[in-house]
Design the sequence.
């Protein structure tokens, strides 16, 4: 075997396990065990049967009308004065349930980029808010799930943490 082919075969052999780990399992949710962490900024560490059941129920209760109304691209900035950092994030919600995000976190030492894709489902609650749940994978997490209750406002929505997401498309 030529050195070039051997290098390609070795690169593929090293990459293959990470590809297997990143396989999407649409019915299983993995979450962090750190109670101080919530949302899409946490790594996943273990299979969570309760969150997996919630994801399955949210998909079963999804309201196509609500999802069509919410479909679009949203942008938010989250500054952290203590760490002198800022996170800029885009989230894309498609009416058919596809979801993706891109974000950039910048500090005095530079910027890091991340992106991920997955699915989302949503339905309206009795108080007019929308419960939505997202199942996604990115460069550091596979089959991660999180949920939010959001309220439509001023050309976007406000999530349960008070973060405003401006609709940009």
Sequence:
């Amino acid at each position: 075997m030529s050195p070039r082919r051997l290098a390609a075969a070795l690169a593929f052999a090293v990459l293959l396990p990470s590809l297997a780990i990143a396989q999407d399992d649409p019915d299983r949710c993995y979450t962090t065990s750190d109670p101080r962490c919530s949302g899409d900024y946490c790594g996943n560490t273990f299979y969570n049967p309760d969150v997996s059941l919630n994801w399955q129920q949210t998909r079963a209760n999804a309201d196509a009308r609500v999802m069509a109304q919410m479909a679009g691209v949203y942008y938010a900035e989250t500054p952290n004065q203590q760490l002198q950092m800022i996170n800029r994030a885009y989230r894309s919600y498609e009416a058919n349930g596809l979801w993706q995000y891109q974000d950039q976190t910048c500090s005095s030492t530079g910027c890091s980029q991340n992106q991920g894709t997955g699915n989302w489902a949503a339905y309206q609650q009795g108080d007019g808010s929308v419960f939505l749940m997202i199942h996604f994978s990115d460069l550091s997490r596979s089959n991660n799930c999180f949920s939010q209750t959001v309220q439509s406002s001023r050309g976007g929505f406000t999530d349960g943490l008070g973060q405003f997401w401006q609709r940009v498309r």
